[in-house]
Amino acid sequence: MALDDAGETDLALGKYFEALELDPSRSTTHYNVGLIYKYRNEWAESFRYNEQAVKLDSSDEAANWNLAIAATALRDWNSARRVWHRLGMPIEEGDTPIEQDFGVTPVRLNPDGDGEVVWGRRIDPVRVRILSIPFPDSGFHHGDVVLHDGAPVGYRESQGRRYSVFNALELFERSTFLTFESELHMANPEDMDALEAICNELDIACEDWTTSVRTICRQCSEGEPHEHHDAHQKEEGWKARHFVGLATANESSVREALRRWENDARKVASLDLVEAH
Q1: Parallel/antiparallel/unpaired status of strands 161-173 and 205-208
Q2: Domain CATH for 239
């Protein structure tokens, strides 16, 4: 475990395999091996060791969760559904993909890097369809389905309610949405409201990155954000220059939306298709 904590996962696995030779009935050793393989995204191996951990100790909730995560990554819906059902989730057994509504949640993209937190709707206990428009540098798009971990790392608050933040493990399914960035000049919040109304009519996702995005320290991101991160934004007030993210599968609809929105007081300075990478 010390080797694993130090990032020496190959050496850690070697020690775990030695331990399994001495005591193959120890469920926690199988779990720890499966845990390393989970964070390596080596799903077949993670499934194998977590499955053995559950066979030895069916009450091990963490091993059951990691088994379901690995089964989901492998598209083994029969196994995933069976585990969720055993854990008491409102999911019936079967062999079809899970597509239900488990509410909204924030998810941290690229947790080992910049760690951008976006909002999405959970379609099963470990998959989220992204509702936000991530920055292109994240490599993700609006509408992507993301496989995420089961243990929360931090919290966010929305409308007086606390939501757990889950770290993304990998992209599960790419959406058809493209990401556009537009520099707009607007006089007041009502101008943004007008754009959102037009985008909603044309089925375009729209997000004002200038006002909706906060840069916070890692400690707060993985805990609970504090008010000091918002102080400068509250003092500055409304800015005329805004960078807005737009997501749609069709570039012509974005151009139509901005054409309808622009007038003598509202200006479109630029519009760019930005590739996620």
Answers
A1: unpaired
A2: 3.30.70.260
Residue where a domain stops, chosen among 27, 59, 86: 86
The answer to the question of residue 197 being in a domain is yes
Tokens of 275: 């590739």
- The predicted-structure confidence for 2-23, as pLDDT tens digits, reads as follows 999 999 999 999 999 999 999 9
What local confidence, expressed as pLDDT, does residue 212 receive? 83
Query: Among candidates 153, 175, 179, which has minimal Cα distance to 166?
Result: 153
CB 145 within 8 A of CB 120: no
| 178 conformational bin, left if phi > 0, alpha if psi -120 to 50, beta if neither | beta
Contact 2, 32 (CB under 8 A): no
Q: Can you give the pLDDT at residue 245?
A: 97
Sort 138 into a burial class: Cβ within 10 Å, 0-12 / 13-18 / 19+.
buried
Print the domain residue range for 23: 2-86
Half-sphere exposure of 47 (CA within 13 A, CB side): 16
Chosen domain end from 173, 205, 231? 173
Q: How confident is the model at residue 183 (pLDDT cuts 50, 70, 90)?
A: very high
pLDDT tier, 232 (very low <50, low <70, confident <90, very high otherwise): very low
In a domain, 34, yes or no: yes
CA 155, distance to chain mean position in Å, is 13
Residue 96 lies in a domain: no
Q: Record the pTM.
A: 0.90
Q: How many independent structural domains does the chain possess?
A: 3
CA–centroid distance for 185 within its chain: 31
Instruction: Give me the half-sphere count of Cα atoms (radius 13 Å) on the Cβ side of residue 132.
Output: 22
